[in-house]
Amino acid sequence: MSSAETADMRRALAAGLSGYLIWGVAPLFFQALDFANPFEIVMHRVVWAVPLLLATLWFSGKLRQAVAALADRRTLVTLLGTAALISVNWWVFIFAVNSGHVLQASLGYYINPLMSVAVGVVVLREPLGPYRIAAIVLAALGVANQTLAVGEVPWISLILACSFTAYGYLRKVAAVDGRIGLFWETCFILPFAVAGLALLQVQGLGHFHESPVQALLLMAAGVVTVVPLLLYAIGVRGLRLSTMGLMQFIAPSLQFLIGVLGGEAFTASHLVTFAFIWAGVGMFAYSTLRRQKRRAGAGETQGAE
Asked: Any idea what DSSP says for residue 205?
């Protein structure tokens, strides 16, 4: 590997890692917005993300490609569906963070990749293997323990995992650039966000004009939405997907620490739930590394031939 390739890989690794770190500490930012309700925060997130994404597409020369993406009716319908799913995901995440359920949010994002594996097997007919079967079973046991032993259905975790799994599947079907996809998703939600914020302002319930600090924090919600996505896109271009797949567990791990250090309830029963999920994550990671090693070995064999 040349020095230039090494530098590119390091840059991609730094970008991907930074993206996941931002997603991991995002609860701290949204907790600072607890003066507003989750609906208002999501609406501001959309309003301020649109111009940032538009500027990103313009600077990257993808505006024409973005317009062309909507020429395909199937892509348009798919992005309308992903817009609805990401709206639900954002609202539930912010509600979880600002109502003292960061641990449930982290649990949802631990479950998400394991749920994605299950969807890949059922819908896309992808190979499963014993380790991934074990990962899915362990995740199911974790959810069952949370329901039976802890005495609560982890609905926040399940909605986050289900909505993001469905979102990821539909975005895979749409096959558009991540920035273009998010741009149109936020554009589709934008009229509702603007109308909602106008209604809040008329009723005297909006918080944007209460103080410059609150206004800046609400505007920053757009930055927190766009920046990690751009960093993720850089990481994906320069790293193996398996590497990015393993790095995705950084975010829920940081969220878990924020929840525990923030004083949320964490009993022995909660520990059992997370132990099952962490064991499933371990199985998933081991399976991913095995598959990566097997592919690398096959590539070396073909190269020798």
From this structure: -
CA distance 287 to 275: 18
222 residue type, one letter: G
> What confidence score (pLDDT) does residue 305 get?
38
- The 10s digit of each residue's pLDDT in 81-111 is 999 999 999 999 999 999 999 999 999 999 8
Domain coordinates in residue numbering, the chain: 3-304
Rounded Cα distance between 108 and 91, Å, is: 14
Sequence-ordered list of residues with C-beta below 8 angstroms from that of 120, at least 6 positions apart, any chain: 126
Picking from 234, 236, 229, 238, the residue whose alpha carbon sits closest to that of residue 52 is 229
Give Cα 145 to chain centroid, integer Å.
25
196-230 confidence digits (pLDDT tens): 999 998 888 888 888 999 999 999 999 998 998 88
Report the sign of the C-alpha dihedral through residues 30, 36, 38, 42, in that order: negative
Nearest one of 231, 203, 209, 225 to 43, comparing CA atoms: 225
Q: On the CB side of 275, how many CA atoms lie within 13 Å of its CA?
A: 8
Task: Answer whether residue 119 shows pLDDT above 70.
Answer: yes
Residue 289 has pLDDT above 70, yes or no: yes
pLDDT at residue 214, rounded to an integer: 94
Residue the block writes with tokens 């009716």? 73
User: In Å, how far from its chain's centre is CA 8?
Assistant: 24
Global pTM reads: 0.87
Cα distances (angstroms) measured from residue 132 to each of 115, 121, 122, 159, 177: 11, 10, 13, 22, 28
The per-residue pLDDT for range 72-83, each reduced to its tens digit, is: 889 999 999 999
Terminal C-alpha separation, the chain: 21
Q: Which tokens hold the place of 236?
A: 């994906």
N residues, the chain: 305
Identity (one letter) of the amino acid at 192? Answer: F
